[in-house]
Amino acid sequence: MEGIVGALVNFFKNTIPAELTVFVLSLLPVIELRGGILAATLLKVDMLPAFFICLTGTLLPVPLILLFLNRIFDRLRNTRFVKLVDRLEAKGRSKFDKINRYETLGLMLFVAIPLPGTGAWTGSLAAALMKMDFKFAMLSVAVGSFIADVIMCLLSYGVLGRVI
């Protein structure tokens, strides 16, 4: 993650403002707010603005995923992208056991753990494929992202290091 974020930060460094770089990275799947917070520390963006920029960037695509993903997959199933749809559905379904046991709480905890393969995009993918109620899925992903953002800020900005 550090290598990818570092390369993207160097690519954008002199072309767009630091805050916009952080926002764009937070929008991307896989990178999300974990990479956004890391980029914010590299670009010397203060923690509080970085927190809200990353949370906003990460949550922006979530309603679209929850509302439209199944329709998009249904349409793509009849095209040459069927293998991509199958692969994405398999990834989402592989997370079902972890999430399904505790439903809304499970989804929130899944998104809150700032590890690769967890996060708002994957959580939203799983929630959409499980056909979870939009309000509960959105709330779970938002709260989980908030918790992940707090954890990442504490780790990346060295707050835990100062406390311990």
What does the model show?
The protein has 164 residues and is an all-alpha fold. It is built from eleven helices and no strands. It folds into two domains: 71 residues, no CATH class; 87 residues, no CATH class.
Percentage of residues assigned to helices: over 70%
- The mean pLDDT is 87
First-last Cα distance: 25 Å
In oligomeric terms, what are we looking at? single chain
Percent of sequence in beta strands: under 5%
Please tag this protein with its features.
single chain, 164 residues, mainly alpha, 2 domains, 11 helices
Briefly characterize the structure:
77% of the residues lie in helices and 0% in strands.
Task: Itemize the secondary structure elements and their pairings.
Layout: H1 2-12, H2 18-27, H3 32-42, H4 47-59, H5 62-76, H6 82-94, H7 96-100, H8 103-112, H9 120-129, H10 134-156, H11 159-163
Helix pairs in contact: 1-3, 2-3, 2-4, 3-4, 3-10, 4-10, 5-9, 5-10, 6-9, 8-9, 8-10, 9-10
